[in-house]
Amino acid sequence: MKVREKSELEVTVDKKHIVSLGERLYTESVELLRELVNNAYDADATEVYVDISSECISIRDNGTGMDLDGLQQYFLIGSDFKIHRSKSPRYGRVRIGQFGIGKFASLTAASCFEVITQSKGFAARVVFDKDNWESTEDKWNLPLEVLEPDLERGDGTTVILSRLNKTFDVEDVERKLIESVPLKAPEFAVFLNGRRLVPRSHIGQRIPILEGSKFGIVSGEIVIVPSSMASQKDLGIEVKTKQVTVKRDLFGMETWGKVVARIKGEINADFLPVTSDRSNFVTDSDEYQEFLKVMEKIIIEIKRLLGKEADRQHDRRAGRAVKDALQKVRKALARNPELSPFGPIPIGEEKGMGGGAVLGEKGKEVNREEEVKPEGELPKLRQKPQKKKRRNPLVKKVTPSAIVRKMLFGDSQVAVCLDFFGENGPECFSEGNVVYINRDHSLFKRESKKIATYTMYIARLLTQEVSMMHETRSPRQAFNRQSKLLKDAFIED
Q1: pLDDT tens, 382-437?
Q2: Do residues 105 and 135 both lie within one domain?
Q3: Closest Cα partner for 322 from 358, 362, 370?
Q4: What residues have CB less than 8 Å from 475, skipping those under 6 apart?
Q5: How many domains would you assign to the chain?
Q6: How far apart are the first and last CA of the chain?
Q7: Are residues 83 and 154 in the same domain?
Q8: Which of 223, 458, 131, 493 is nearest to 325 (CA)?
Q9: How would you label 264-290 residue by residue, b for 16+ Cβ within 10 Å and e otherwise?
Q10: Which of 20, 105, 131, 484 has the highest CB neighbour count under 10 A?
């Protein structure tokens, strides 16, 4: 087909669409304030003051301010200025803002958006009145007033939102600003209604994160908080880019049950592309898929540490149960000296009660009450001369995670050792004055889950072995001795 004539079509945009676009991009009004504070950060401000009242909101900073060219750039829709100049001139900050739509979005929460700025002797005010701007359909100009510089004020920018049509809850604003502005950055402070905001901190086991990827560094810190401080509020790990939280994510931990409430912290990955409203990442990007691979490794490590912590908690509980059982059996033997294979045991305060030790990983002190035994070494006991030792002892080595508690029974020292002897191994057995209890045994696994029966279970096995230490030819007699000792062990004084 031949071309008859060439001309041009004028592309026009309804002003109302600019406002509605901002409204869709910023679904929460609080996000507008986040954007304005981050603009102050990009302008090398060291202090930002956010003041909220029922009539208006002001955001005042001491940054570099804007000259005339800067103001024109500021109101340019979709400017790529910060993309090409990604670092601020004074502090070299990686700039956060990208899209330049925030001031238009502000008109969804307030009918008037006023900017007062000063930079190197230039001062001006721009009033962006929504009603006036929309009434002049053909004109896109905003009224500009050049002002006399305020030498006391110095450089900086103040944004005032007035004629509010949405309410701002101060607590919501505080929560949003704490997680979405770079409060940890040096030389940067944000004040909300006169009070300085401080970044959130957590108490617990800290896991520093520093992982490389083909797109950049993934860094941060994960904290496993104590169970008493676990909270269902704000679940997940904060994922940040350029020090700003974009979203929280559980990364598959939602299947872990209540323990997921103990996982807090933040991850920084500046290379991740974000959506235009900064509420999510571009999840189908190569960068985000690479990030997920890194996070998979991190989550595996968190799970491993949680498992170790659970083991330590179980070991502490087991140590307390063994100690309580030893005390109760000692009391029963003191009441029944004729049943004691160790001779008379004085009634009263126990003597020689070492707290015992949890035999932890080699070289690590687990309990300071008593020296940790090196791997493979059995507890050395003070005791009366016994009959000849077994030439081939059943236990030649204990595992590094064995739990040992010992107590003085008269002139002899008795020890209880909880260790792993296999699911098909005996429930318990003794060698000399050491009673071994099998943590792999199905009964131990069942009873150790119940705090109420844990001590009773250990005491039952301990009285069983002590009864058999007393020389007897009758199993019935040994059983009766055990029954008597167990009964007296749990009689209240």
Answers
A1: 455 555 545 555 666 778 778 899 898 888 889 999 988 888 889 999 888 899 99
A2: yes
A3: 358
A4: none
A5: 3
A6: 110
A7: yes
A8: 458
A9: bbbbbbebbebeebbeebeeeeebbeb
A10: 105
